[in-house]
Amino acid sequence: MLRRMTLSDVQAVSAATLRRLERATGDLAAACLSAMEDGQPWFARLPADQRAGVLLVTQTGVANFVAWLGEPAETSGSETMRLTAEAFRIAPRDLARRLSLRQTVDLVRIATEVFEERLPPLAADDAEYRILVEAVLRFGREIAFAAATVYANAAETRGAWDARQEALVVDGVVRGDTDDALVSRAATLGWDAAAPLRVMVGSPPEDRGDPQKAGVEAAEVLSGMRRHATRVGRSVLVGVQGSRLVLLLTEPRGHPAPDERPPAGERPIAPIVADFGPGPVVVGPVAANLAAAHVSARAALAGLRAAPAWPAAPRPVEADELLPERAVSGDPTALGVLLETVIAPLDAAGGELLRTLATYLEGGGSLEACARALFVHPNTVRYRLRRVSELTGRSATDPRDAHVLRTALLAGRLADPPTGS
C-alpha cells in the first residue's frame, strides 16, 4: 500500500526529474486530448474552439503540476489550490456553460489516468516513483475540487442573473411594457413568449420560526411554487414586489372557458395557490401571449385592491368575479367590462330585458311583484330572466350574480343618464 505523501516529500524530486517532466508537458497534453477523444465520443464532436479550450486547460494543468512539484514544502499546500484554480481561470468564459459538470469530471478523470500512466515512469528511482504517483493523485483531486468550484460559482452567478432577469420581466408586465426587450428577457429564461398565460397576485409567503432565518423560508416556498408549476406542465415567473407576490403562469393551449373550469381547490394550480401568503389571491384573465400579459396583470392587481370588499371570496378568485368591488373602487376597466358583458347584450336584445331585470332586482327578487309592476304573467318574467342569464352568464336569482347585475345596471345608468338629468 502506498504511504500518504507529506509536504516534505515534494523536496525529494530531483531537479533532473523536474526537467524531464517539463520537457514532457507538450506530449502529455496531447496524450490527454487523444485519450479524451477515444474515451468520450461526444468530445470528438465538440466545435474546434471548445476543444482548444479543453487543450488549453490541460496544458496549463500539466505545467502547473510541474511548477507545484518544484515549490518549497512550506508553500506547496496553498500553491496547489492557486495553480489548480489558475488552470480553470484561463479557460474561455463560456466553456463551463457549454460543458456540463459531469462531462468535465469525466475529462478530469481521463487526464488523471494519463498522468498516472506517463508521469511516474519519468522518476529517477523507486522513491521518486512513489512520490510522483501520490503527487498525481493529490493534484488530480485538487483539479476536481477546482472544477467543482468553477461550476458552483458559475451556477451561483447564473442564478443571480436569472433572478434579476425574472424580476425585470415581472416588473415589465406589471408596468405594461410590451416592447421587444421584455420578450427578449423572457426568452433568455426559457419562456415561450407566444404561450397564453395568466397573472396571479397575492401576498408573499411569510417567514416563520427563527428570525435569523428571515427570507430563507420564503425563498424555499417560492422554489416550491416553481416545482409545483413544473409538475403540472406550466412555466412560471415569480416576482416579489414589496407586500405583493406577482406570478406569471402559462395556461395550457386550448384552455377551458371560465364556466368549464373545475373549482379552485380541484385545479392543478391549487398547490401553487397554497404557497401564497395570507389573504386573497386574485387571478387575472387569460392573456394571449406575454406582450398582452399587462392586461391580465392590471385586472389582477385591481382585484387585489378591491378583494377586501368581498370577505367571502374564494381563494383564488377570478378578477372578473370582483367586477362590482373593482367598479366601486374606481377601476374604469371593470366598469367597461360590466357595460360590455351585461348592458350591451341586454340592450341589443331589446329594452324589455333590461327593464325586467331592473324591476326584478329593485323589487326584492319577487317574481310576482315584478310581474304585477310590468303587467305581465310571472312566466313571462321567468322567460326574460332566463334570457338574461343566457346572454350575460349571470343568474338574477343567485345572490352573487344579482349583485354583479345590479352594479352593471348602475354603471349603465351612469354611462347613459336619462335626458334632463
UniProtKB/TrEMBL annotation:
Belongs to the CdaR family. This is PucR family transcriptional regulator. Residues 353-411 form the PucR C-terminal helix-turn-helix domain. InterPro entries: CdaR-like_regulators, CdaR_GGDEF, PucR_C-HTH_dom, PucR_C-HTH_sf. Residues 176-306 form the CdaR GGDEF-like domain. It comes from the Bacteria.
